[in-house]
């Protein structure tokens, strides 16, 4: 990841996003200490801005801040992945089950476009585009529910979810197959306005992914 100057607007949020992307990409590894001054110099911001960004990332489950020791990247562990995934599935499930009552032709077409973007990225062999398209589909489904409080809770988990999915794509065989199967089943259930099927898809695919991630983490060096 190349150094980048941060614009003056929304400094804290932009620094938090940059650091989150560094964690997701593996530039910052689990348990690695994040030193405020070097990052402030690298990004051209104040040390206070980096400190505030780290507080944001602590709330988003990406770092932990230890008294008198500073911030460290949260390690990828089976427990961490399980807790993040379970919380994400609970909130997402509550959001998505509301979609059938709000789905119209425009929203249905939007979901289909998100699914088609996944298919095109996969066919092109573009892993980053597939990664982005998959999460775009999930976030679009959540937005269609029109529940601001739940959406804010979900947004707070998304950096950690992105980190889990990045690890999965990089380390689990046939992960793209799994993601496509999940997306197609979810969109079909949403289009059918079948709340019970939506819940079944999330529960079955979600637990399977937790198991796959846990197994991959146990085998990781």
List the defining traits of the structure above.
single chain; about 5% strand; 9 helices; about 220 residues; globular; three-stranded antiparallel β-sheet; mainly alpha
Give an overview of the whole structure:
The chain has 221 residues and is mainly alpha-helical. Helix content is 72%, strand content 5%. The protein is built from 9 helices and 3 strands; from the N terminus they run αβααββαααααα. A 3-stranded antiparallel sheet has the order 1-3-2, covered by helices on one side. β2 (63-66) and β3 form a beta hairpin. α4 packs across α7 and α6 packs antiparallel against α7. The radius of gyration is 18 Å and the shape is globular. The model has no long low-confidence stretch (mean pLDDT 91).
Fold topology:
Elements: H1 11-25, E1 33-34, H2 36-43, H3 47-59, E2 63-66, E3 70-73, H4 78-96, H5 105-124, H6 127-144, H7 148-171, H8 175-191, H9 195-219
Antiparallel strand pairs: 1-3, 2-3
The biggest sheet, with number of strands, parallel, antiparallel or mixed sense and barrel status, is: 3 strands, antiparallel
- The neighbouring-strand order within the major sheet is 1-3-2
Please mark out the parts with pLDDT under 50 across 5 or more consecutive residues, or reply none: none
Helical coverage, percent range: over 70%
Oligomer: single chain
**What is the general shape?**
globular
Give helix and strand order, one letter per element, not per position.
HEHHEEHHHHHH
- Alpha-carbon Rg, integer: 18 Å
Distance between the termini: 23 Å
Class computed from helices, strands and strand pairing: mainly alpha
- Number of distinct helices: 9
What's the total number of strands? 3
Mean pLDDT: 91
| Strand residue content | under 5%
């Amino acid at each position: 990841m190349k150094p980048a100057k941060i614009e003056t607007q929304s400094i804290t949020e932009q620094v938090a996003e940059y650091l989150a992307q560094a964690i997701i990409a593996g530039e910052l590894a689990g348990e690695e200490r994040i030193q405020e001054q070097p990052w402030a110099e690298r990004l051209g911001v104040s040390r206070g801005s980096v400190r505030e960004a780290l507080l944001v990332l602590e709330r988003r489950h990406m770092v932990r801040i230890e008294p008198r020791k500073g911030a460290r990247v949260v390690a990828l562990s089976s427990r961490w992945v399980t807790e993040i995934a379970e919380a994400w599935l609970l909130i997402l499930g509550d959001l998505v089950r509301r979609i059938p009552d709000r789905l119209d032709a425009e929203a249905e077409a939007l979901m289909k476009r998100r699914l088609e973007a996944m298919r095109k990225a996969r066919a092109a062999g573009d892993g980053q585009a597939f990664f982005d398209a998959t999460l775009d589909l999930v976030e679009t489904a959540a937005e269609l529910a029109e529940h601001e409080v739940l959406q804010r809770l979900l947004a707070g988990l998304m950096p950690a979810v992105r980190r889990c999915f990045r690890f999965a794509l990089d380390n689990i065989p046939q992960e793209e197959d799994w993601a496509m199967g999940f997306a197609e089943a979810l969109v079909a259930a949403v289009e059918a306005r079948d709340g019970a099927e939506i819940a079944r898809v999330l529960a079955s695919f979600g637990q399977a992914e937790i198991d796959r991630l846990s197994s991959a983490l146990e085998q990781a060096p």
